[in-house]
């Protein structure tokens, strides 16, 4: 599942669909076998729309096995959310990620994915709430902190954005911090660089061009905070 999400994040949709199909084949072999017999003409090199529909149908059939929340498979809902997300069907994505959260309300990754989907649905206030919940569950979740910073920028809350981005950068200075970069939707390949570039965006919006040269890879965040009052 994490590998499939990483493929989606990097734009390798067909690889993601193939990975999700293998996930279904492993956990729900009976569904995959029936689908294979019914859709023998669909090939792995078909266009992304055909492949998406094929795999989405598999996940829907898996979801129908346990329609009630008590027995629902959160991973199936996550997979469906990712499939809908890749096709920019954000309303359906939101429903799936919310269902995954209903199954496991303490899962910070699901809250981060919900936040990203809300942000893409032009619901920044709700996105901020979801990212904040993810950070309450896992304060070391740098990806959620980065996403929260971006949402604050989009809301014009630049000082709040700077606080989150600097905190995220400070976590990169600590060995062993699990940032979850590959587990949230729309992740970046180089998260530290993303934090730095986004921090510069915030300072530009604040008309603090004097700080742009001070923001760089390897910067001492604590010293920066003391010198410039952040």
Which key terms come to mind for this protein?
230 residues, mainly alpha, Serine Threonine Protein Phosphatase 5, Tetratricopeptide repeat, elongated
Produce the secondary structure layout.
Blueprint: H1 2-9, H2 13-27, H3 29-38, H4 48-64, H5 74-86, H6 90-103, H7 108-120, H8 124-137, H9 142-154, H10 158-172, H11 191-205, H12 221-228
Helix pairs in contact: 1-2, 2-3, 2-4, 4-5, 5-6, 6-7, 7-8, 7-9, 8-9, 9-10, 9-11, 10-11
Put the structure in a nutshell.
The chain is an all-alpha fold and 230 residues long.
Q: What kind of sheet is the major sheet?
A: none
* Fraction in helix: 55-70%
Say what the CATH topology of the largest domain is: Serine Threonine Protein Phosphatase 5, Tetratricopeptide repeat
The whole-number mean of residue pLDDT values reads 87
> What is the number of independent domains?
2
Number of strands: 0
N-to-C SSE string, H for helix and E for strand = HHHHHHHHHHHH
Judged by helices, strands and strand pairing, the structural class is mainly alpha
What would you call the shape?
A: elongated
Our estimate of the beta-strand percent is under 5%
What CATH architecture of the largest domain would you give?
Alpha Horseshoe
CATH homologous superfamily classification of the largest domain: Tetratricopeptide repeat domain
- Distance between the ends: 38 Å
| Tally of alpha and pi helices | 12
Radius of gyration: 20 Å
Low-confidence stretches: 175-190
CATH class of the largest domain reads Mainly Alpha
């Amino acid at each position: 599942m994490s590998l499939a999400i990483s493929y989606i994040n990097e734009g390798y949709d067909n690889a993601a669909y193939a990975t999700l199909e293998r996930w279904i084949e492993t956990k729900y072999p009976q569904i995959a076998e029936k689908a294979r017999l019914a859709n023998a003409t669909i090939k792995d090199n078909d266009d992304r729309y055909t492949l998406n529909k094929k795999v989405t149908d598999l996940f829907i059939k898996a979801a129908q096995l346990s329609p009630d929340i008590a027995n629902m498979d959160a991973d199936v809902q996550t997979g469906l959310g990712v499939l809908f997300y890749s096709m920019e069907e954000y309303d359906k994505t939101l429903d799936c990620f919310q269902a995954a959260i209903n199954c496991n309300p303490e899962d910070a990754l699901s809250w981060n994915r919900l936040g990203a989907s809300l942000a893409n649905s032009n619901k920044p206030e709700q996105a901020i709430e979801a990212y904040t919940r993810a950070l309450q569950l896992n304060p070391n979740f740098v990806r959620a902190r980065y996403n929260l910073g971006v949402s604050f920028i989009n809301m014009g809350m630049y000082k709040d954005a700077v606080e989150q981005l600097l905190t995220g950068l400070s976590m990169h200075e600590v060995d062993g911090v699990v940032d979850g970069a590959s587990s949230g939707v729309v992740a970046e390949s180089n998260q530290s660089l993303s934090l730095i570039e986004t921090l510069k965006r915030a300072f530009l919006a604040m008309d603090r061009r004097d700080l742009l040269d001070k923001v760089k890879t390897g910067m001492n965040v604590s010293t920066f905070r003391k010198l410039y009052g952040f």
